[in-house]
Amino acid sequence: MAVKLFEHPLSPYAQKVKIILYEKGIPFERVIIDPNEQRDDGDYQEFVLASPRREVPALVDGAVRVCDSSIIIEYLEERWPKPALSPASPGERARVRMLEEMMDTEYDAVNWGIMEIKVFERAVGEQAEKLLVRASLQLQRMWNRLERELEGRRWMNGELFGRGDAAVYPHIVGSRAFGYPVSARHPRLLDWQTRVAGLSAPKRVGTERAECLRRERAKLGEARPEVVRQYRDHRLEWMLKTGGSDIFVEGLLRGTIRFAGEYE
User: Fold this and answer.
1) ∠ Cα 110 169 76 (to 5°)
2) Who wins on pLDDT, 261 or 25?
3) Closest C-alpha to 257, from 243, 242, 239, 241
């Protein structure tokens, strides 16, 4: 039975997992889940069983159900140990896990906030400008960190491409898509980004992302419908500390911001 991955091509967490699956050569079935759509079909019910918070990605391997992108990657590394995509030494593996944590929380929160303003227009005028300036400075600081990670290393993962690179690359692509490309002050990071973009697994994931964007734009046309967005702790923290507490409260009151529902 093939592995089944419940995902959305625009999710950086799903992209991270797919890069690992493609790199390992693990056959899998993709099931696209729209986070804002609940369905009655069997695939959706199987997704809810695998991911009680209704968050992508989730993976089903026979009787095994796994959610959370980092835990999924741990499972894949143990279930299919070759090729190994984590560093060999305990110290380097810990470094990569810390890097992954930064990207999945701090970096994701900045991209999420930028999208809330530039795509969903939750802030306009002077408030939007202030939030975006702060977001840009936050990205610069994290690019500084990523630039240091590449000192003496060819890849974020170390000597070979792997988990560390899969964890970083989708978020870098995301901020670039929102109009925040890595600056020229980070030459190692720029060179790394170019090399990753030329690899088959990231390229394949990028193609799936682009196809999804085309479908979404064609479906929406010029309309800008209100979308309910699910917040988690790091996204809420970003909005509160960066100056958007009123945006969050308004979204809660209007029902366009939510948290995950209770477990069933």
Assistant:
1) 110
2) 25
3) 239
